[in-house]
Amino acid sequence: MTFTIQTMTQEQAEEIAYNWHYEQEYDFYDMEADNEDLEEFLNPVTRGNNMFSVSEDNVLVGFLSVSEEPLSTFEIGLGMRPDLTGHGMGQNFLVGCIEFVQKKFSPKILTLSVATFNQRAIKVYKKVGFKEIEVFMQETNGSQFEFVKMAYELKKK
Which of 9, 91, 130, 132 sits in a 20 to 30 Å window from 120, CA-based? Predict the structure, then answer.
């Protein structure tokens, strides 16, 4: 799979926010599940240049957020279109996102945080090489949830 990754447009943000609805349990990731996250995602100023759309053959298949942390570490957040999840495409999607971040930002380490109930995603992250570094409680979607922070050390090319 070859992905095209570029700065997200307002139209793409609205498509994701209002039309992407995940199946039960994973509906936790619906943008509309948390008003604060929804407002930030839809606002071009807060979205800035660190939110990217991921397309394949000009069809939106996912999104990627990238934020710089100290020591050449970059935190990523990503999501696939709901109808594509659970079909064995996650690893290719993740690798494509990692390659993009590596080319654009030259990080030493990537981190991400994922809800601990999302074992499907955690399995993919581990398969690619992410390691669990801490478990923490995060306030979101009107409550507190357990998350795991994971890290991936990039190899020099």
Answer: 9
CATH code, domain with 136: 3.40.630.30
Give the Cα separation of 11 and 85 in Å (integer). 22
Q: pLDDT tens for residues 44-71?
A: 999 989 999 999 999 999 999 999 998 8
Lowest-pLDDT range, 23-37, 52-66, 109-123?
A: 23-37
How many domains does the chain contain in total?
A: 1
Pairing relationship of beta strands 109-115 and 73-80 according to DSSP bridges: parallel
Is residue 98 a contact partner of residue 82, using CB atoms and an 8 Å limit? Answer: no
Q: Within 13 Å, how many C-alpha atoms sit on residue 10's CB side?
A: 5
Joined together, the tokens standing for residue 12 give 């793409």
d(C-alpha 70, C-alpha 61), whole Å: 30
- Spatial separation of the C-alpha atoms in residues 133 and 34, rounded to whole Å: 26
Q: Which residues, other chains included, contact 60 with Cβ-Cβ below 8 Å and sequence gap of 6+?
A: 12, 15, 16, 53, 54, 81
Phi, psi of 111 (to 5 degrees): -125, 160
Tokens of 4: 């095209």
- Predicted local distance difference test score (pLDDT) of residue 84: 95
What confidence score (pLDDT) does residue 61 get?
A: 97
